[in-house]
């Protein structure tokens, strides 16, 4: 099967707005970086704690390293980001379902409205936000319904194996698979869908499960998304050979059953989407290593301790909480966010000579 996969290169960015364009800093304009990328997507880590110790993510010896803020502080920060043009909020961690007050936080988020029309003009009559959650699913069975009632739209569950034994070996938590499966089913039942299941493939560890994941997608009616392993782990064990690249996943799936490529849901879609020849099941492949999509990046992240990170691979973070603690007004914080976002990195440099690992690992950023 021929799959066309255009590479996004740095020249895509060069063609956009020049750094000297200070109109991007204008208050009232939609939040953009110096390359002209509109920032519409905010990921908020609501805790640095996690109840899993996935082997590719954590050392197994470290606990939380960073504090968490009162929920009202996250809400104030989100409100300001929304006033600047953010439309999608993804709650993450650590493990967000460990955070007390999460349901109430979702209730508050569900009251917020987007601040800009599609054409970029400000509006008082905006739409509800798109509110999503990324979770390991361990506590999801009990929380799916309250979260749905509070206004959560969608859930993504991280699952790196579809058999109980490999799953427990990855998470280092016994009997974890059944709990997560029950969480996935409950999320689907209460309408937190389409439920996405994210799997990070590691060569020699769970890459034998690609076809079983395809079965899982078809059987459980969930979107399975394979994500390339990135150098974001606590243990610093990443090697290019461990990454299972997109081409290989596509070839394996196509041999299992012919794939049919689906159109992207939006311009900033990070996944290549496929179904099978009978239309049952959906697979996404997210390939930040072999097919970077930085040119379309619309994201920034807020860590559990209130720092802004403009890229997963940033070498530093920006202390929004510090600005708040020093008594910054909403206008001060908006101006600070605009300045920080202007400096968003053009792209990551995974696999290039001189690549430096970021200053925080994934679990302490919020994936
Ligand atoms: N605890 C939640 C969960 O399990 O989804 C949210 C935090 S977790 C850090 C977010 C996502 O990051 C998970 O899907 C995990 O698989 C992914 N992740 C962690 N380390 C990664 C890495 N080095 N490369 C790619 N994805 C990674």
Explain the overall architecture.
This protein is an alpha/beta fold and 367 residues long. It has a twelve-stranded mixed sheet. It has eleven helices and twelve strands. The model is unreliable at 1-20 (pLDDT under 50). Bound molecules: S-adenosylmethionine. S-adenosylmethionine is lined by residues 50, 56-57, 92-93, 95, 134-136, 158, 198, 200, 227, 229-230, 232-233, 362-363, 367. The site of S-adenosylmethionine has 20 residues, from strand 3, strand 5 and helix 11.
Query: What pattern of helices and strands is seen along the backbone?
Result: HEHEHEHEHHEHEHEEEEEEHHH
Give the termini separation: 32 Å
Mean pLDDT: 91
Number of DSSP helical runs: 11
Major sheet attributes? 12 strands, mixed
Roughly how much helix do the residues carry, as a percent range?
25-40%
Tell the overall outline.
globular
Q: What is the CA-based Rg, rounded?
A: 20 Å
Q: What's the number of extended β-strand segments?
A: 12
Strand order of the largest sheet: 7-8-9-6-5-4-3-2-1-10-11-12
As residue ranges, the low-confidence spans are 1-20
Query: Which structural class do the helices and strands define?
Result: alpha/beta
Fold topology:
Layout: H1 10-14, E1 41-45, H2 71-84, E2 88-92, H3 102-111, E3 130-135, H4 140-150, E4 154-158, H5 164-171, H6 176-190, E5 196-201, H7 210-220, E6 223-228, H8 246-256, E7 259-262, E8 271-276, E9 282-286, E10 299-302, E11 307-309, E12 318-319, H9 320-325, H10 330-342, H11 362-365
Parallel strand pairs: 1-2, 1-10, 2-3, 3-4, 4-5, 5-6, 6-9
Antiparallel strand pairs: 7-8, 8-9, 10-11, 11-12
Helix pairs in contact: 2-3, 2-10, 3-4, 4-6
The chain binds S-adenosylmethionine.
S-adenosylmethionine is lined by residues 50, 56-57, 92-93, 95, 134-136, 158, 198, 200, 227, 229-230, 232-233, 362-363, 367.
């Amino acid at each position: 099967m021929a799959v066309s996969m255009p590479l996004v290169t740095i020249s895509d960015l060069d063609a956009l707005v020049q750094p000297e364009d200070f109109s991007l800093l204008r208050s009232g304009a939609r939040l953009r970086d110096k390359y002209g990328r509109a920032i519409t997507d905010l990921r908020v880590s609501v805790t640095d704690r996690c109840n899993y110790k996935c082997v590719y993510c954590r050392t197994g010896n470290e606990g939380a390293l960073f504090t968490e803020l009162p929920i009202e502080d996250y809400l104030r920060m989100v409100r300001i980001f929304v006033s600047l043009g953010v439309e999608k909020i993804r709650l993450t961690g650590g493990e967000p379902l460990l955070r007390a007050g999460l349901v109430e936080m979702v209730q508050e988020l569900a009251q917020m409205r987007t601040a800009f029309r599609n054409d970029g003009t400000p509006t008082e009559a905006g739409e509800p936000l798109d509110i999503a959650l990324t979770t390991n699913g361990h506590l999801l069975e009990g929380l799916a319904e309250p979260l749905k009632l509070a206004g959560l739209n969608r859930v993504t569950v991280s699952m790196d194996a579809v058999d109980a034994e490999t799953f427990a070996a990855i998470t280092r938590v016994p009997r974890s698979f059944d709990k997560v499966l029950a969480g996935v089913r409950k999320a689907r039942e209460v309408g937190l869908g389409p439920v996405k299941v994210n799997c990070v493939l590691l060569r020699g560890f769970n890459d034998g499960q690609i076809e079983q994941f395809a079965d899982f997608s078809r059987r459980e009616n969930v979107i399975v998304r394979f994500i390339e392993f990135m150098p974001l782990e606590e243990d610093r064990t990443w090697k290019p050979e461990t990454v299972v690249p997109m081409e290989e996943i596509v070839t394996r799936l196509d041999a299992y059953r012919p794939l049919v490529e689906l159109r992207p849901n939006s311009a900033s879609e990070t996944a290549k989407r496929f179904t099978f020849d009978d239309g049952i099941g959906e697979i996404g492949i997210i390939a930040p290593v072999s097919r970077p999509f930085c040119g379309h990046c619309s994201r920034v992240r807020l860590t559990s301790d209130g720092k802004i990170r403009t890229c997963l691979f940033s070498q530093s973070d920006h202390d929004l909480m510090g600005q708040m603690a020093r008594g910054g007004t909403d206008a001060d914080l908006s101006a600070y966010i605009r300045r920080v976002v202007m400096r968003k990195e053009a792209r990551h440099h995974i696999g290039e000579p001189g690549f430096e690992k970021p200053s925080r690992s994934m679990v302490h950023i919020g994936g």
